[in-house]
Amino acid sequence: MGDFPRSVSQEKMKVEEKSDGPSDGSFSDLPSLSTEEEQKLDRATLWKRDLVIVPIMGVLYMVLFLDRTNIANARALGIGKPDGLEGALNMPSNGYNTALWIFYIPFVLAEVPANLILNVNKIRPGIWLGGQMLLLGILGMCQGLSKSYGGLLAVRFLLGIFEAALPAGATYMISMYYTRREAAVRFAWFFNFALAGPLFSGLLAYAIQNINGAGGYQGWRWIFIIEGLVTIFVSFFVIWLCPNFPQHAQSWFLTAQERDRLMYQLEVSRGAETKGSAADNVPIWKVLTDWRIHLLTMCFFCCDVTASSIASFAPTILTELGYVTTIAQLMTMPVWGAGIVSTFIITWLSSRLNFRTPFLLFSICLQLIGWAIMVRYVEAAGIRYMSLFFMSAGTFPQMSILMGWLSANLRGRKFLAVGMAWMVGFGNCANFISSNVFITTERPRYPTGSHTGLAFAILGFILTSTAFLLLYLCNRRRDATRAKMTDAQRESYDELHFKFVY
Fold first, then answer.
1. pLDDT of 1 higher than 60
2. Are 417 and 118 in contact (CB under 8 A)?
3. Residue 9 has what pLDDT?
């Protein structure tokens, strides 16, 4: 099935472990192509993946993130008004907080099972992801048609069920198509697509205010209806264009030669992951209890406390800083824009220099500055507005680097399916915290929310440092163990134990 061998020599694996990246395109065991032809083929394959995988998964996540955060804009559009979201649905004082966290109960519980179903590969990824996105769009519209507070809660619970498979599935697809070194920057693009969702949501909310009352619906209802229609529209393109897994990639996407070359590079980067390999035969209980997954997920959890706080409460906080509702909607856009720019710069440098930990710790320090300003409660509104920029610039680079870091330190489809799902799923449990610590009666200072955000940023710094230390010590122990082995023993050992990156 092509010109490339299915097995990868252990010598090449060792070179890959040392470099933490794809080889330079010249493989001594590929006599059918010259070095120049191999490099040309590698560029073409990477270009195709970047034009198809990242945009499709990124747009999918952007629309999901937009649907997830539009309730914040809907609330801000009519905050304190009888025809606003809370007034029209007769919400209790903690009703908005409940509407936020009820979404995440099924979302968290269904993440890992959904990715394991996707991993079985009985349903084409495009059908699995696009079909659930279609249902999500319909339910998103139903939020705008809700006649009661109970109806809104029911719809948001269902939204959590059908969204569960999508972000975890999208990150899993990226992990399956890119080598360990390539994945970091692609996760940055992926998360920046997500940040573009609430960025445009603020602009859309500002525009929708002008159609308040059209068709007998308040403006906040139109936010849900219009954004739900966008989700439905995009879902058809996901069903149509989303590729299969690499080994079954369609011919319109990758030629047989490109597909075999990609499979070769992925095996060089991660080791054998095909059915029946050592990595594939690892018991599921070992995957579910792996410390790497849980420690790095806790790091993600800590940074997501800030991310979910920005997403859910930035429009409200800006309104309470004294800005009118319409201006507050627009003023959220530069905050998200800062996150996009920061993510590109920091993640590119991290990938270029092949270091994760220093850039993660630097990003956490930016987070800490933002939360410190909120805790101190500086009187000047401009300074408190600036704190949101520090939070955004420090939070979102962490998410993409952590996702790439976990992916780079896992081997085998089971590990990737569970690891990506658990990081996205359990990591999003941070929303349970952020949705309950910004207490309405404490506005505008929100001391509980600010102190909680600061505490989790500090915890994230500690956990990230701990992850670095443990991975470093594991590498030292691995090298010492391999030094005592024969070549045959090393070959068997290296099928499961590879060099960690940090």
1. no
2. yes
3. 40
Alpha helices in 242-324 (DSSP H): 256-270, 284-288, 291-320
Contact 226, 208 (CB under 8 A): yes
Residue 407: name the closest of 496, 277, 297, 262 by CA. Answer: 297
If 0-12 CB within 10 Å is exposed, 13-18 middle and 19+ buried, where does residue 360 land? buried
Tokens of 407: 């992916």
Is pLDDT above 90 for 42?
no
DSSP-derived 3-state class of residue 75: helix
Are 220 and 143 in contact, with CB atoms under 8 Å apart? no
Give the per-residue pLDDT at 491: 62
Residue found by looking up tokens 């060792």 in the block: 14
Which one, of 203, 215, 199, 223, lies nearest residue 84 by Cα?
223
What is the Cα–Cα distance from 10 to 180, expressed in whole angstroms?
17
pLDDT of residue 25: 40
Helix (H, G, I), strand (E, B) or coil at 343: helix
Radius of gyration (C-alpha) of the chain in whole angstroms: 23
CA–CA separation, 316 and 341 (whole Å) = 24
Residue among 258, 180, 275 at smallest CA distance from 498: 180
Average pLDDT along the chain: 80
**Is residue 468 pLDDT above 90, yes or no?**
yes
Predicted TM-score of the model (pTM): 0.73
Question: How many CB atoms within 10 Å of residue 182?
Answer: 22
- Which of 7-16, 270-279, 480-489 reaches the highest mean pLDDT? 480-489
What is the mean predicted confidence (pLDDT) over 272-285? 58
- Helix 180-208 with 325-353: angle, nearest 10 deg: 170
Tokens of 472: 């470093």
